[in-house]
Amino acid sequence: MKLITRIISVLLFSCLIACVSGSRRTVYPRSTVALNKTIYIDSEFEIGKRNYIIEAIKNWNCSTNNIVNYKIQTDFKIEYAQFIDPEKSIIVVKTTDKNPIIKNVEDQIREESQDDGSTLSIVGLFHEKEGYPKIIYMVDNNLSYYEYGVVFLHEEGHLNGLDHPDTTDSIMYFRMDKASDTLTQNDLEQFCEIYKCDASKMKVCK
C-alpha cells in the first residue's frame, strides 16, 4: 500500500551518512551495528506521535526476530543528553524545518538532484557523529500520527545500517510519497545482508 500524504510537496527521508538516489556520501563513519541499546524519546512529543514512534520501534524488533531489540525510554529531557553513554544511546528529537541541520541537508539535496520545481521538505533525519549519541530528528509538521510512525520506521532503518534502495517497494526509499508505508521483505533482505541472517525466516510484523 502506498502512503497518500496530505503535504503538497516532495517529502524526503534523509540521513547524514547516505545521499539521494543511491549516490553515497559519507559524512561520518558508520558504526558497525546499533543493537540492544536504548532509544530515548524527547519529552516534547505529543502523546499520539510518541506512541506511533514506540510502535515503529516494536515493529522493527518483532520483524527482525529481536535481532534488533531496543529498550525504550520515554519523556527524556534533552538537557540530560550529556549524562548518557553515547555508545549505547539513540535520541529521538522533535524539531522544525528551521533547524540548521535540516536546512543544510535540504540545500545539499537540491544541489545534487534534478529538482523539478517541487518543494523539497525533509520530514526525518538520522544524524551520526563520532563521540556523540546518534540522533533521529523528527520534523514537527502536518503529518498524521500514522505518517509520523512511517517516518520513524524509515529513520530507524538508517540507524540499523540500511541505505536508500532504488526500488520503491521498501520503507527505505528516499521519497515518502513513493515509498512503502510499512517494512517490506526487501527491507529485511537488506537488513540480513548486514547482519548475516536469513531473511526467509523473517516475517514483517503488522
Fold and architecture overview:
Strands 1-5-6-4-2-3 form a six-stranded mixed sheet, sandwiched between helices. It is built from four helices and six strands, in the order ββαββαββαα. Helix 1 crosses helix 3. Residues 1-10 and 16-34 have low confidence and may be disordered. It is an alpha/beta fold and 206 residues long. The chain is globular and about 40 Å long.
Topology, element by element:
Blueprint: E1 10-15, E2 38-42, H1 47-63, E3 71-76, E4 89-95, H2 100-112, E5 120-127, E6 134-139, H3 145-159, H4 185-195
Parallel strand pairs: 1-5, 2-3, 2-4, 4-6
Antiparallel strand pairs: 5-6
Helix pairs in contact: 1-3
Main attributes?
6-stranded mixed β-sheet, 6 strands, 18% strand, 4 helices, 206 residues, alpha/beta
Unreliable stretches covering 5 or more consecutive residues = 1-10, 16-34
Query: Approximately how much beta-strand content do the residues carry?
Result: 15-25%
Overall helicity: 25-40%
Q: Structural class, from secondary structure content?
A: alpha/beta
Q: What order do the strands of the largest sheet run in, or round the barrel if closed?
A: 1-5-6-4-2-3
Morphology: globular
